[in-house]
Amino acid sequence: MGYSKDQLIARLKELQIDFDQYEHPVVLTVEEQARYVGHLDGALSKNLFLKDKKSRFYIVSALSNTKVDMKILSQRLGLGKGGLRMAPEEALGEMLQVPRGCVTPFALVNESARSVSLLLDQGLKTQGHCFFHPLSNDVTISLNARDLDKFLNSIGKPPAYVDLEANPPVGKDQPPDLAAFVPSDATILPDNLEKTASSVAPEKNHISADIKSKVVTDKPNKPPNGPKKEKSTDAPAVSASFSDPEKFVEEILEKTSRVVLSEIKGEAIKQHGDQLGSVVSNSIRRQLTAELKNIATIFKNTAYTEGFHASNHQQPKRS
Amino acid sequence: MPSSNPRARHFPPPMSSTSLSPEGEEVAEEEQVVTPWEVSAKQGGKIDYGKLIDQFGCQRLDQSLIDRVQRLTNRPPHVFLRRGVFFAHRDFTDILDAYERGDKFYLYTGRGPSSEALHLGHLVPFMFTKYLQDAFKVPLVIQLTDDEKCMWKNLSVEESQRLARENAKDLIACGFDISRTFIFCDFDYVGGAFYKNMVRVAKCVTYNKVVGIFGFTGEDHIGKVSFPPVQAVPSFPSSFPHLFSGRENLRCLIPCAIDQDPYFRMTRDVAPRIGYSKPSLIESTFFPALQGETGKMSASDSNSAIYVTDTAKDIKNKINKYAFSGGQDTIEKQRKFGANLEVDIPIKYLEFFLDDDAELEQIRREYGAGHLLTGEVKKRVIEVLTELVERHRRARAAVTDEMVDAFMAVRPLPNMFS
């Protein structure tokens, strides 16, 4: 399940990050938040949760008075002119695991937000303190950008600050300057395939048009047009199979059971009698060997990578 | 003529109106042309691979070799071997002889990272390389020639590096074993022992020679002219001291498409002159475009190929609308005369990707006799391709930036032969 605000706060303390905490009634917009913390020393942030046509997600975290032009941002990312739109509300829950009105860079602590790209306004660095929600919108925490960086580094998401108001030309000889921010992991579910073990969530073809939350819209939300449909995400379930032995075994057993069940039928029993066992056994091998070897390799590669990462971030031994 | 192998270079056409065969004789234009930069069949027909083997002087991969591979590896030979997709070689026998004696080898393949998503033709050599890695239990180096793309496609250095990392994810998704695989980008890795070998190779190849092989002109910049050694030296184990030090005589096997043969001939020519063993090659035919063998698989026409990012719907659409059919125009004619299997693209794709020999044989028989209709064959190939693409996409989604870093880390691979 997603991190709770208390878990996050505990994490921040563990990392010895300097921050102040303010509680207030639930707020859904920057204006509302300003009512409670606006008098304090610090800058409010606005946080947008965006999605492109290839179902890749972005959090844009900026000072509340930084102008963010979605069209320009879209071009600078190399997505063309209308490539970016507000992410649908379901994605907020599924990927960021935060409620409405609570988009925050801290949501990246969740495994489900693994492939979300974070763009930070360089304006945040100019302020002594900035205000963010720590995974719930009845609390605001105030901290310096440096401390935010400390946190982001600790979760393996090195921060990168960008001049969000810049409007560099993008063309044949000037590649999009923010192209590096486009996540490579597209969180897409295939449509109409029964082969995947995990269940397919129904496709949502609309964007909630009524989010008057921290997400600031430049234009009214429009339903997606064009041939590409939007697909719901299933990234967490896919990756968990490859890093969690229990889920991995579950998947193997599920695939095997499916073959067994499809082979043991009245006809087959009549046809093969006592031999049905070896027939089914051969079927399992024939149908599953390649696939199981493949997922086992992915499992191995994932474990190796985790070790590699751990080794790189190892603290020197205390003597 | 499409050449969708990952090492295809798009060099400018030769100055003269005829092409040079490896012996330097001029070949008349009515003949087929196969060079690293141009592939075209005779008169809009099909590539004559038998003739190509003669022309290049490489060897046919015959059934006895395939049987030998099966014996040595204790598993069924890969579908690409059974179907003659990988059909030619140079000194593959030496690799097998050495292997039988207990002397291992390593694999070397690569890709020029392009901006587009990969299509199925790009995956073919990598799928085969993965099989070789698993079957023989040997290490693999994969070279991403980001510098080449920077120079030939006029990309910025940063953009070509970014593309290389993107492509690396698709390659990793093919299922290579991280404990035996080293992926590297030229911009990161060239230097040290690798560069020393580059200079050794460069000293052995005259300017005239590269012009002859690659068709450089006086207008081409010096980056291009000096690039070829970069692609040659991964064939030599001393280019990878962190992997192979102490194993200077380790052999190298290079799976590639046959249009790369002239290129690696240069490498094999140089090798003995600098005291290295010649790399062996195992070579494949070209992957046909959707529109047929004579169609052009083009990066700008997304309907000429199936991409790894295509949805199930896209695949269905592309096969139904664009796959060139060898079937007859009407159902009556089809039942009477049967389909022309030689030109039918769905059948060709099934030859590449349908593993079950018995099923393929049955489909060919029935389709050729007219008992099966084009629509039914297309339906089957759509299923096969969709499963393939879906599996790839799922594997790709599991590749994180960290995994790419791990594959690319200059680290020892202690278990690379076990």
TrEMBL record, chain A:
PANTHER family referenced in this protein's UniProt entry, alphabetically: PROLYL-TRNA SYNTHETASE ASSOCIATED DOMAIN-CONTAINING PROTEIN 1-RELATED, YBAK DOMAIN-CONTAINING PROTEIN
Name of this protein: YbaK/aminoacyl-tRNA synthetase-associated domain-containing protein
InterPro entries linked: ProX/PRXD1, YbaK/aa-tRNA-synt-asso_dom_sf, YbaK/aa-tRNA-synth-assoc-dom
Family that this chain belongs to: Belongs to the PRORSD1 family.
Region of interest called Disordered, as start-end residue ranges on this chain: 197-241
Gene3D superfamilies: YbaK/aminoacyl-tRNA synthetase-associated domain
GO molecular function per UniProt: aminoacyl-tRNA deacylase activity
Compositional bias annotation for Basic and acidic residues: 203-233
Annotated ranges, domain YbaK/aminoacyl-tRNA synthetase-associated: 24-151
Pfam families: tRNA_edit (PF04073)
UniProtKB/TrEMBL annotation, chain B:
Domain of life according to the entry: Eukaryota
Region spans: Disordered: 1-31
Subcellular location: Cytoplasm
Principal subcellular localisation of the protein: cytoplasm
GO CC field: cytoplasm
Matching PROSITE patterns: AA_TRNA_LIGASE_I
Enzyme class: ligase
Gene3D superfamilies hit by this protein: HUPs (3.40.50.620), Tyrosyl-Transfer RNA Synthetase (1.10.240.10)
Alphabetical UniProt keywords: Aminoacyl-tRNA synthetase, ATP-binding, Cytoplasm, Ligase, Nucleotide-binding, Protein biosynthesis
GO terms of molecular function: ATP binding; tryptophan-tRNA ligase activity
Enzyme Commission (EC) number: 6.1.1.2
Statement: the UniProt record of this protein carries the keyword ATP-binding: yes
Pfam family, any one: tRNA-synt_1b
Any single biological process term in GO: post-embryonic development
Matching InterPro entries: aa-tRNA-synth_I_CS, aa-tRNA-synth_Ic, Rossmann-like_a/b/a_fold, Trp-tRNA-ligase
Keyword match Metal-binding: no
Similarity comment text for this entry: Belongs to the class-I aminoacyl-tRNA synthetase family.
Protein name: Tryptophan--tRNA ligase, cytoplasmic
